[in-house]
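Deliverable D2.4 — example input (structure tokens):
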């Protein structure tokens, strides 16, 4: 006589089988649906990244070829060819000889992705505690998730900024991206004066070194030496030395030579140099301070023109209490180092610092005089 299967076991197996099917194929959140969504999302992200790359190259007048796209995206030539074929079929790009260009539709998508990216970088810099080195990577993720209405709400909450924290222009809601004529720092010559307007945030390793050097948009620089090994320049009393590969990622606009004195003159003494009882006037808060932290200090009254007095330090040396606008504020040394002051009490600043300031000003002024004399000599010869 054949043994009949246990009805309870058969029922249990059937329930488990149905449960497995439900987990895999459930209409809203099944594993199959999630896999399909992730696959579509991955394809869209790849497509949008490619469109953004095409658009940024279009702004700079550089053609995009199959090999250049593959290299930028980190994919094989076959994958890049399939991607370009798909985007051509969707009417986003069109071939031109050996290069590819955006169609009007493709450009519209690219501009919105770029707008979301740069607005999110601005948000990260002003409203969060993430370091500068993290902004680009996190914005790369957010740009594909933000909906158009969320992008516009973000822009409004930030006051519709024109530039991201690296100095790049943010496309407007109408899709307009202003162009700023710049040149890399490596194209300047000794005696040239310029203002940094953009730090290239790729590759990440190079950008991290520029940040560590204390460079930022808005910084005025006076070049005092340029060789095949280095570019040396002054800014606010500090000397900076960059290898050409780093200097090529710093973009500047020339400014009148008459502003040389303000470019190389130190902002002032660091607040951390004050001794208990010394008074000073705040002259500036360094742009190298994290924007979110900088905004908090400004809200607390740490503003140019405000009077400050060093009161006392903790038993461990820091933080130090400072009296600013009738309020005691405790600051760490790394914070106080980035707040510059002009002493009001009788105690003088550090003599060595003054000597270095005078030397920096002398070197900068001598460079300008030598360059002017050379120019006059050329005119006489001509």
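Example output (designed residues):
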């Amino acid at each position: 006589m054949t043994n009949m299967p246990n009805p309870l076991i058969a029922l249990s197996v059937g329930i488990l089988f149905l449960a497995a099917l439900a987990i895999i194929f459930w209409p809203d959140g099944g594993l199959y649906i999630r896999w399909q969504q992730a696959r579509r999302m991955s394809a869209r992200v790849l497509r949008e990244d490619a469109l953004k790359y095409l658009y940024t190259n279009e702004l700079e007048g550089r053609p995009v070829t199959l090999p250049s796209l593959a290299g930028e995206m980190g994919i094989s030539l076959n994958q890049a060819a399939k991607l370009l074929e798909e985007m051509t079929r969707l009417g986003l790009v069109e071939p031109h000889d050996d290069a590819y260009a955006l169609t009007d539709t493709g450009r519209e998508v690219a501009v919105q992705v770029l707008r979301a990216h740069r607005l999110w970088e601005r948000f990260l810099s002003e409203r969060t505690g993430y370091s500068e080195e993290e902004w680009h990577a996190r914005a790369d993720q957010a740009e594909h998730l933000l909906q158009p209405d969320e992008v516009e709400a973000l822009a409004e909450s930030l006051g519709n900024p024109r530039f991201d924290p690296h100095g790049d222009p943010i496309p407007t809601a109408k899709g307009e991206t202003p162009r700023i004529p710049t040149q890399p720092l490596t194209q300047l010559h000794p005696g040239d004066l310029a203002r940094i307007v953009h730090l290239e945030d790729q590759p990440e390793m190079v950008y991290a070194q520029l940040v560590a050097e204390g460079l930022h948009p808005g910084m005025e620089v006076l070049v005092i030496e340029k060789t095949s090994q280095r570019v040396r320049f002054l800014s606010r009393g500090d000397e900076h030395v960059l290898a050409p590969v780093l200097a090529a990622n710093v973009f500047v606009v020339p400014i009148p030579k008459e502003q040389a004195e303000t470019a190389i003159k130190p902002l002032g003494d660091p607040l951390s140099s004050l001794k208990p009882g010394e008074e000073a006037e705040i002259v500036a808060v360094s742009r190298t301070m994290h924007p979110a932290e900088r905004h908090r200090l400004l809200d607390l009254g740490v503003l140019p023109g405000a009077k400050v007095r060093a009161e006392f330090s903790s038993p461990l040396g820091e933080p130090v209490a400072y009296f600013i606008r009738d309020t005691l504020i405790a600051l760490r040394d790394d914070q106080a180092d980035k707040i510059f002051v002009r002493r009001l009490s009788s105690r003088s600043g550090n003599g060595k610092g003054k000597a270095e300031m005078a030397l920096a000003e002398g070197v900068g002024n001598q460079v300008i005089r030598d360059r002017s004399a050379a120019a006059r000599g050329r005119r006489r010869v001509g």
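The domain at 183-264 is CATH 2.30.30.90 (SH3 type barrels.).
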